[in-house]
Every structure is written in structure tokens, then in C-alpha cells.
Amino acid sequence: MTKLLEVNNLTMEFGGVVALKEVNLHVSAGEIAALIGPNGAGKTTVFNVVTGYYQPTKGDVLLNSKSVLGLKSNKIARLGLARTFQNIRLFGDMTALENVMTGSDSRNKVGLVGSIIGTSRSRQEESLSHSRAAELLNFMGISHRSGQLARNLPYGDQRRLEIARALALEPKVLLLDEPAAGFNPQEKVELGELIKKIRDAGFAVLLIEHDMSLVMKISDRVSVLDFGQKIAEGTPSEIQNNQKVIDAYLGVVDNAS
Amino acid sequence: MSSIKIAFSKFNLRDSFGAWWENATKKQRIAFRVLLIGFFYALPFLDNPILGTPETNFQSVLFYPLAVYVAMAVGLNIVVGKSGILDLGYVAFFAIGAYTHAILGTFYGVSLWFNIILGAAFAMIAGVILGLPALRLRGDYLAIITLGFGEIVRIVALNLEITGGAAGIAGIPAPPNIFNVTFDVLDPKPHYWLMLTFIMLVVWMYIRLGKRRPGRAWEAIREDEDVAEFMGVETTKYKLWAFILGGAIGGGAGAIYSSQVASILPDYFTLNVSILVLACVVFGGMGNIWGVVAGAILLEYLPEKLRFLSETRILFFGLLMVVMMNIRPDGLFPRKKREKVYDKVTGQEISR
Amino acid sequence: MLLEINDLKVSYGKIQAIKGISLNIKAGEIVTLVGANGAGKTTLLKTISGILKPAAGVIKFDGKDIQGIAPHNRVLEGLCQAPEGRGIFPGMTVLENLEMGKYARKDWKSELSEDIERIYTLFPRLKERQSQAGGTLSGGEQQMLSIGRALMSRPRLLLLDEPSMGLAPMFIQQIFKIIREIQSQGVSILLVEQNAAQALSCANRAYILETGNIVKEGAGKDLLNDDAIKKAYLGTGA
Amino acid sequence: MDFSILWTEFFGLTLDGIVVGAIYALVSLGYTLVYGVLRLINFAHSEIFMIGTFTSLGLSIVFGFTGLEEPLGIVLFLLVFLVMALASGIVSGMSAVLLEFVAYRRLRRRGASRLSSLISAIGASFFLVEFYRLTTESKDWDFPRMLSKDPIFSISSAYFTLDKIIILLGAFGLMFGLDRIINKTRLGRGIRAVSQDEKTAILMGVNVDRVISFTFLVGGVLAGFASTFYMLFYESTKFNVGFLLGISAFTAAVLGGIGNIRGALVGSFVLGLIQQYSSVVLGYNWRDVVTFVILVFVLLFKPTGLFGEALQRARV
Question: How far is C-alpha C112 from the chain's CA centre?
Fold first, then answer.
């Protein structure tokens, strides 16, 4: 399997505090990879480095075998890395459809003058963006929300809209940051199905999630971070029986008890 | 205080008009547009005790400050309202346009028709020079830098020979006649019509942009710049576009202005102008073009109409900006946050 | 009853983070609240400290409803928190950070050196570092400072939010030893932890939280081997 | 460009640069302190300074010193000057507190955007300038010469006059006082705590509203004292006196790293010197352009200033 996203020996320090230490990760085509770990283990930091928001202290990030280090976030996004956010960050005053269309901005080429004049190319791009966005909303099961303002959407649909917006970039790898946060068990099951559907549509997924039952059910491969270091990697069942992982989550009982 | 607040929040002309507009037929809409545009072109002839300004020449008020400030407010709205970039030096672009026509028109005989375009072009160049580095900065730092830029342009005009120093440039030519209409210092009507045409062109452009790619990108940047960047939106490029487009509009307006007033001096281009334009945008409703136009008309017309206001108007504008931000931060006519209906397949908006 | 919480509900916008929690703490107890990320633990502490406003429910401290008391005045009532992420003032020295613990009192300078000595006895490491800037301390030292600073206010109830987070195992053991020592000095403790094993073995009583609800309650050591714990953390498959 | 004057006048320019820098420093501290606690550029701070100059001027009129021909004796002068400085400090301080209450507090409580707060600040600034323009009839107002400006001694071209010495001593005294307030008093600690970590500060019992009011008070008082020094040195004021001085002081704060007290002091003296040197080299007319260009360059190449912002905020 081709590795779409590779993270090699990634180290990230903030003013002397080591947030990530020589982390190696990868996401291959057609898989759902999960990144788990206790609070403060550095999971979101991985996303922020990979998407170019932070410059790592050491290490490299490869997308399609090419380094994306030092590129601006928008450039990395264009190259095929789209993300969602732990605490939903939609454009609240724009409609759901407009939110998704923002995600497809990078696929358009028409400039300022072309937009003013309304050249045929501009019209083509616009109508394609519109229909693509409508299609994606449909894919995520929220086409009935297309005209509503993002801020007025119910919580679960906001999460779905965030994913739709990211998919509009047609990414190689989709980064999901705790997509199930705040969901009830039923919604989590539905989300799991949706993520599988996204994978089957040809997007590789890297998932940060705390809900273990969800992670274990849908992931092809799980990596575990603790103290900014990768302590384990394997199939869901391997991870669940890995003593290091259990210790990381539940803590070690010392002889004092 | 709270009763004032309630009264304020209940007053929403846009909504009731918007409801009418939503239900209007195509013919009704065209008729409304024609009537409105006709009304504005006919305004100079409607100098009567109700509309007219008793102590100043109504026709000349229509050009300056009314039309001039509407044009600038519409331009600044793209920057501040639509994209959320706080520009406190907008007057710089206006001044660049004004001096372009003053210098090229007076000393080199270039016609205003070229100078409007050249003024806009020079303003855009200045916008690129300032914007490329400055637009990377955080909002409040950017505000101070633009303020500095506005002052630098004025001080440079004050100290250069070609700009005539503090005395400025006089005898700036008006354009030659077209269709038997004489452009002249004494008769402000033709310049008013010219500025009105310029405004309509700009508004038309703005509406088209708003519905398309740049408009969406600007809104996304205003709402959350980081996220826009993560979504592949080239935020720096779009901010620069907004900045230079706003600048070009200021430059064009400046060229027309200098042609009408026939003489300009650096004192016309102080920070006050930038702030007054900003007040128009904020008062009307950042990001809503009709709100901004209405805001500029109200703020520039009332002081002329109510004589007692004109001496103290900046005082009131300052107060107004504080009160507005505290009570109605989105302005009197906030930008529309209305829901839309889209076709399920094409995703095109369906008008009701 | 030192702290009594009744049917508390807290929301962030549209997400209900706490869906009706009731719990209590008796004077002298260590009570721990364990659960996976996103279960609502930190939200609960923030609500007790007054940083967040509850949508419904009552919080009584020492029999008194504290809803009307401004967050900054709750320290004077005897409630003090060592927040998640430690909340060290990075530009203040260790000593100044400790002194901030007494800020709530107008007479903060009285008995200041006694209080500081008390903290230094508990954390000798802090004394060595007393004139160093808080931001330059290691994670474990910052955690000590955060707890020490909260103790400066002489609280009756100490709220600890994930004191073991991001610490090396050696430090974690030390921190829990100190927590027990603080209890022995008569301070009650509400301990929010992800490190369930440590927290449960150290606490008198425990509540297990899952997505905003209490799913289990009992003596700390009894819950240690309960399946509910594994389920709350590792999912149903475990 | 004329560099020869720069060499002949070097010591004189340096002395004046330090004196002007001392005045900037007192004003820039106000920007920096408020930025520290609110993350907001207090746009109206320059007007707080302007109010101070008119307070000093008003007192000189009340005392009947208008058109004074003979300077006062040193003891009487010091007494009068102290009263003026205190009065200006109090008036400016109270104005700053009131400003925060009217223009910022509601917005802060509602968590309004920075743009809204900044526009409110600009509005407040314009209101104050216009109010003073209308009430002072847009005139230049002269401040009487209450003190002889004959040099006491000189080092090369640097003529030490009594006013310069008083300003330097006074400014350094105030800076020392501020240092004590910030580092030793309870509210001073509160200012530092809020600017470093507001949430934890609340948990420690810091009343953030009160600390913010106190920050404005301190900044305002310093600006008030600075305004009296300014009047002593320049002997004239006008409704728009705050604008350029405010820009200079703000530039100085940014130069040193806004939010950073030490940075504001260093930035002020550096800027004061640069302005003095450049005004003889390029001509006085270009002095303000130089200030702006410095501001632009600092922001572009070192956005957090020479010493860095006191606190870097993490995002996302």
C-alpha cells in the first residue's frame, strides 16, 4: 500500500517543553488510521504540525513522498490534507452550502477581474462548485440543511458539515479531530458508518478520537501517543491488549496501594 | 439604557423592506431599481425646503461630502466590512488619486478620464507595496500601520515640490464636455452625476464579487482566518485583493474629487477623513453594501441639514462609534444573515 | 457535608457537557472523579470554581449556596483550584507564584513567610527554585508549584484538575504521596484524574463519569477492579 | 541631508533625545500596561495625555501665571509644579478609568471582537479630541515660562537646563515608583497575573474588573505626569497634541515589545534619540515620517519588538 502521509521523527518543542518526541506515523491509501492517547499526549499538536500551523523542531512530514515542511497551511491543504477541528470551527454566518464551497476555493482558478466580468470560465467554475457542494452535503446526509446558516445547525450536523467542508478540498488524507465528541452512542454508531463510507469513497482517514469503542470498531490501524511519544501501534485488538497502553490510560498502580 | 437598546433592536428597516423585496415580482424589482436610480440622478433638481440644505448649496453638498463619502465608504467596506481588515489610512488612497489628477491634469494636460484609471492604478500599486508586507500582521498592528501610511502620504504631499507643499495645487482642470454637459467648478451637477455613475459601477462590481469566489473567501477570512487558511484559501492573496480593490476605488474617487474642487491641499487628507469614512461603514453596517451607503448618506447629509451638527459632527461621530459598538456592534443595517434555498442537485440559489 | 452538588447541568452552547450530576464530599475526604476525556470532569471543576455558569442545579459549599458568589471571591470561602495545565504565571518567580495564592486576602502579607515555609516543607524542591521564573520549571515542578500555590490560600477544599497529566511516572507517584499528605493536614480534596489506578487507590470515595453522567459511585479501592472503569476508558471491547 | 550638524550638535541632540524619550516612556507605559491586561491598543491613551496638558495649562491660568515675565523662585516653582503634576496625574488617571468604563468594559464582558473594541477606542479618541478642539477654540495655548531655561552647566553642546534635569529626575522617579507598584503591591501583582494568565488569576481570587480599572488608573496617572513635563519642556499645547506624541509613544512601546515594561522604556529612549538625530539630518518636517517608517519596519521584521511581547499566546 502506498503511504500517502508520512511523519518521520517528528519532534516539537514549545519553549523547552517537549510536546512531541521523535514520532513516526503514516497513513496509507484506503485505510482509517487512528491516533489515540491520554489528554495532553500531543495528538492535536501532530495535526497542527502536519497542516503547517506549527514548524516542528525536528523531523519531516511527507505528503505523497514529498516534504511539505515550511509550506503555508493553504498550500498543504491544496496538496491534499484537509482537517476538522476539536471544537467546531465553521463560518457561522455563512450558509452550509457556502461553507462547503469555501473548501473548494482552491480548485478554482478564476481571478478578481474574471469574477467581476463573469467570464465563461468563472461561470463554469461557479456552477461546478455549487453542484459539488450540493453533492457533498447530500453525501453527508445534510442536504436539507444546505440553505441554513452554519451557526444555526444542530450540533451533530455542524460536525458533519465540517467534514463536508474538508472533503470539498478532495484531500488525499482527511484528518478528523475528535469527530464524535459530544455525540450520544447512537450518533457515534452513525458517525462510524459515515467515516467508513468516506474511506470507501477513496479518502484515507487519520482519526483522533477518545471514544474507544468507535476507534476499535472502525480503525484499520491504531497508534498510541503518551507524553508525546508513540508507545504502541497495531490493530485494534492488539492495542486493547497491550499492557503499555492500558498503563498509559489507567495509570500504573505503584506498591503504595 | 436597556429601553434604548430594545428600541434600537426592534428598528430594522432592512427586514421589512427585505420581506417586500423577497416577494416582489421581477417587474416590480426592475421598476424599483429604475425609480431609485432615477431619483438619485434627479436629486440636484430636487432642491426644496424638505430635502435641501438651508445654509449650504444643496447641489454642491450632493457632490461633497455626500457622493464622495458614499464612494469612499463603499470602497472601504470591501476592506473593513467584507474582509475584516481594519484600515485606518484609507485617506491615503483618496489622496493618491486626487494628486494623480492634480499633477497629471494640471501640469501635463492628461484628461480626467485617464486620470481616474491612473489614480486607481497608482492607489493599487501603493496598496500592493503596503499590503504585501503589512497584511501578514495581526489586526490591531495592521490598523496602526495603515494609520501611519495615511499620515506618511499626507506629510510627503506637504513636503514635496511637485505636490505644491502646504499650498497644494490649484487650477486643476475639469474634463472636456460630453453630450453638451459642461464640467465646471461652479456647477457641481455634472461631477455629481459622474461620481454617482462611478458609485453605481462600484456597487455593481461589489455585488457580483460578493456572490462569487472572492466574496465567499473574504467572508470566510473575516469569520476565521486560520480555518480559511486550513481550507486551502490563499488568505494573503484575498486580503491583498480586498485591500487594493478598496484602494483603487478610493483612488478613482479622489481623482474625480480633485477635478471638481479644482484645488487641493494636504490638509484635505487628514486622519479625520479616514475616521469619518470608517464611521460611515460602521454606522451603516459593516459588510452590508446598502447599509454602508445608507450610513454614509445619513452621516454626511445630517450635519449639512442640521446646521448645529456640522461644527460638532466629529464629536458626535466619535460618540456614535462608541455607542454603536456597545449597543449595535453590527451597525444600523447589519449585513444580511439570511437563510437561502438551494437546488438539491445544482446547488444554485433558488429565489423565492 | 462540605460540598454538595445537586442535579447540576452545564452546557457549552449547544453541547450539554454535564447532564445532571449529584455528588458530595465530606470534610476530610479525598473524593476522586475519574473518566475518559470529554466526560465532563474539567467542566465540573470549572463550574465549582465559578468560571462556568451552570444551566441548572445547586452547588452548596459548607451548607451555603455559592451560586451568587463571584468566582474570584470563592477563594475566600475556602475553595481553591490547581487548574488543568497548572496555570503557572510564567513571568513570575516561584516565590511570587506562591504569593499569588494568598492574593484573595487583603492582608496577604501577614503570616506570609509562615505559609511559604509550610509549602516549602511539603515541596522542598520549590525552595531550591524560589527565585526562578515559573515558566522555566519542569512539568513536575510546575505541578508542585500549582498545588502549593493553591494551598497558600489555606483552602478547606482543594480542587485538583489532572495533577498527573503529562508527568513522568516517578513524579506521578510523588504527587499522589503529597496529595495524601495534604489530606492528613485536614484539607479535603476533590481530585479529577485520568490516571484512574492512582486516583482510585488514593481516594476515599470515587465517582465514575461518562459523557456528562455519573455511571458508578463507590469506595475508591472497590472500583479499582470494576469493569465499569475499563469500559469507561477503553470501550466495550476490553 | 546634512550630517555635519549631527556631529557638532551630537551631545545636545543626545540630551534632548533622552529628555523626549523620558516623556515618551511615561506615555508608552500606559499603552503597554493596558495591552498587557486587555490585549487591546488603547487608542484613546494619547487623549488622556492631552487632557493632562490642558489640566496643567488650566492651573497655570487659575494661578494667574499667564504672561508671566519673571520666572518663579525655585522653591515656589517646585511647589507649583508639584501641584500641577499631581492635578494632571489625577485628572488623567480618572479620565482613563472612566474611558475604560464607558468604551471598553461592556464590550469586554460580552467577548466582542477586537475590531469592535478598537473601533470603540477610536470613537472615544475622536470624541475627546473634538471636545477639546471645540472648547479650546482650536488654538495653540502657551504655557508660561515659570522657570529660567538658562543652562546650569554644559557638556560639549549639551546644555543642562533646570527643566531637563527636573524631567529626567521626575521621570526616573516615576519609573522606579511604577516598578515598585507592579512588583510589590497587591493590585500590581494582580496586573501581572491577569496579563500572564487571566483564568488562573481569577482562580487565585483576582478581581479582574478592579485590576483593569487600576491598570487604566496607573497608565493615566503616568500620562498625566508626562503631560506636565511636556508642558514644561515645550511650553505649548493644542487639542491635537496627543496624536503625534501618542504615535511616538506607541511606536516606542512596539519597538520594545508591547506588553513588556522594560521594552517600553528602552524603546522610548531609542526612539527619542532617533527622532532628534534624524530631524537635523533630514529636516524637522520629515521627523514624523521617520517615526512611522520605524514603526512599519519594526512591525514587519520584528513584530514582537526588540524584547518580545511579554506573553506569547498560543492559538488553535
Answer: 23
CA distances D42 to D46, D123, D127, Å, are 9, 11, 14
Binding-face residues of A in 67-86 toward B, CB within 8 A = 72-74, 77-78, 82-83, 85
Distance CA C46, CA C40 (A): 10
Ranked by mean pLDDT, the top range of A16-25, B118-127, D4-13 is B118-127
**Of B7, B37, B32, which Cα lies nearest the Cα of B17?**
B32
Indicate the domain borders of chain B.
Answer: 2-351
Q: Does domain B2-351 have CATH number 1.10.8?
A: no
What pLDDT, in 10s, does the model give residues D167-187? Answer: 999 999 999 999 999 999 999
Q: How far apart are CA B276 and CA B283, in angstroms?
A: 10
- Neighbouring chains to A with at least 3 Cβ pairs closer than 8 Å: B, C, D
Mean pLDDT of B186-215: 94
Are B144 and D250 within 8 A, CB to CB? yes
Grade residue A254 by pLDDT with cuts at 50, 70 and 90. very low
- The dihedral through the CA atoms of C66, C67, C70, C71 has a sign that is positive
- Domain D3-137+158-310 of CATH type 1.10.3470: yes
Higher pLDDT, B277 or D297: B277
Yes or no: say if D44 and D125 are a contact pair by the CB < 8 Å rule.
yes
Please tell me the distance from the alpha carbon of residue D26 to that of residue D249, in angstroms, as a whole number: 8
D236 touches D227 (CB < 8 A): no
Q: Is D200 part of the contact surface with chain C (CB cutoff 8 Å)?
A: yes
pLDDT at A252 over 60: no
Which residues partner with D236 through β-bridges? D142
CB contact at 8 A, B346 and A131 = yes
Residues of D in contact with B267 (CB under 8 A): none
Count of CB atoms situated within 10 Å of the CB of D131: 18
pLDDT above 70 (res B13): no
| Segment B3-12 mean pLDDT | 52
Q: Which residues of D touch A14 (CB under 8 A)?
A: 314
Q: List CB contacts (< 8 A) between B278 and chain D.
A: 119, 122
- Taking an 8 Å cut-off on Cβ atoms, the answer to whether A256 and C237 are in contact is no
Distance (Å, whole) CA B48 – CA B235: 49
Same domain membership, residue A137 and residue A106: yes
Reduced to 3 states, what is the DSSP secondary structure of residue A178?
Answer: coil
- Interface residue C235 vs chain A (CB under 8 A): yes
Which position has the higher pLDDT, B306 or B170? B170
Cis status of the peptide bond prior to A56, with omega within 30 of 0: no
Q: How confident is the model at residue D301 (pLDDT cuts 50, 70, 90)?
A: confident
A230: DSSP letter: E
Q: Chains contacting B with at least 3 CB pairs below 8 Å?
A: A, D
Using CB atoms, which residue from A155, A182, A216 is nearest to C235? A216
* Nine-digit cell string for D248: 511616538
Question: Mind listing the pLDDT tens digit for each residue in B274-331?
Answer: 988 998 998 888 888 999 999 999 888 888 887 777 788 788 888 988 998 898 888 8
Instruction: With beta carbons less than 8 A apart as the criterion, state whether A153 and A161 touch.
Output: yes
Write the CATH number for C42.
Answer: 3.40.50.300
Task: State which of A170, A195, A212 marks the end of a domain.
Answer: A170
Q: What is the mean pLDDT of chain C?
A: 89
Position A85 in a domain: no
What is residue C238's predicted lDDT score, i.e. its pLDDT? Answer: 36
CATH number of domain containing A9:
3.40.50.300
Mean pLDDT of A112-131: 92
**B348 interfacial to chain A (CB closer than 8 Å):** yes
Q: Cα separation of C50 and C33, whole Å?
A: 18
Please provide the distance, in angstroms rounded to a whole number, between the alpha carbons at the two ends of chain A.
47
The complex's ipTM?
A: 0.82
Does this model's pTM top 0.80? My answer is yes
